[in-house]
Predict the structure.
Amino acid sequence: MSLDTPKLTESEPIRSDLSQSHTKRWALWFSGIALVVWLFYTFVLPLLGEQAGTFIRHWMPLGSINEALVWVICAIGLNIVVGYAGLLDLGFVAFWAIGGYIAAWLMSTFFDQISHGIYFLSAAPPNQHGIHINWWLVLIISGCVCAFAGIVIGAPTLRLKSDYLALVTLGFGEIIPQFFVNGENIFGFNLTNGVKGISPLDNVSPLPFGPPAVSLGGATIPISQPLGPFDVGAKYVLFVLVAAFCIFVSLRLREGRLGRAWLAIREDELAASMMGVPLMQSKLAAYAVGAFMGGLGGVVYAVHNNSVFPDRFSFAISIVLLAMVVLGGMGNVWGVIVGALGLAWFNSTGLPQLGDSFNEQFGTDINFPSYNYLVFGSILVLMMLFRREGIFPEARTRQVLREAERSDAEELDGGEV
C-alpha cells in the first residue's frame, strides 16, 4: 500500500500538466484561427479578384460565420449540462429565446409607454421611446435572468432522472416559445408582440466610450461607432469575444472542484452521492451556468439578426444543438466547437450552395435545403455506428466507449481466465 501511494500522488500533477498543455494548445489554435479569419475578411478579401471574391462570399460569407458563433456559444452551454453533468436537456432553446427577448426589450423602442426613453451607455439616437441599454450590460442581465430561470425550472425537476428529466425539459422548451407567440395580449398588455416579433434593435457599439473609429491599413475599425446591421466584420470580433468568454469559463469550471463533481455525477450518480458530492447543488449549478450561456447566445443572435421572432425558437433548435454536442465530442469543449461550426455552416450555407451547384451542373430543380434533417439523421446514424464518441471525444469518454467487451468467463471470474 505504501509503495502505491507515491505513484498516485506523483501521477496526478503530471496528468494535470498534460491537460493544461492540451488546453493551452487548443486555445492558441482558436485565437489564431479567429485572428486569421478577421484579417482575411478585413484586408485580403477586398484585394482578391472578382471570381475568387464571389466564390468566398457564396461559400463562406462572414455573416454565416457570425451565425455559427451563436451556435457555438449555445452549444458550449448545453455541453455543460449534457456533456459535463450528464443531464439530458431537450429544451435548451428556451434559454436562447429568453435571452433574445431580453435583448429586444432592453435595446429597442418596443415599450413605447416610456415616452422619453431610458438610456444607459446606449448607441441609440436620443429622444426615442422604450429602453436603450448598452449591449454589454444586456449580455450580463440576460445571462443572469436565464441562470435564475434555469434554477427555478431545475429545482423541482432535477430529482427526476433519464427519460423523465428529458420529457420535463422538452415541455419547458415548448412552453417558453409558445408564451412568446401568445404574449401579445397579457391582461391587455403587449409583452412580446406575438408572431410579429420585435424589430429593429438598437445599434451596438464595441465600447461605450473612446473615438468613433481608427484607420488601420486602409480599413476603418470602429471603437465606439454604432454598428449597423451590415457591419458584420466588427460584429464578428464582438461575437468571438463572447464565445471566448464562454470557452474560458467552461474550461476553468471543468478543471475545478465543481467540474469534477459534475463528472462524478455523470459517471455514477449513486457513487458520487456516497462520496459526499451534493447532487442537487451540483446539478442546479450545471443548469444555471448552461442557461447563462444560452442567454448570452440569445442576445448575440438578436443582435446578429437585428430582430427576434418566436418562430425562430422551435424545438428543432434544441435537437440540432444536441447533435452538435454529440457529434463534436460530448464533454470536450473543442470538439463541441468543431461540431457546432460544421453543422451550422452546413445548414446555413453549405447545403444550399451544394444544391445550387448540383442543379446548375445537371439541370435539375431539387430543393436541397428541405432535406437537411434527412442529412442530419443519416450523419447521426453513421456516427453512432462507427464513432459513437464523436469527432474529438473527451479522453474518458473515448476509453469507455472503445473498451473491449469482456467474455462470459471474464465476467464470472472477475477478469481472470
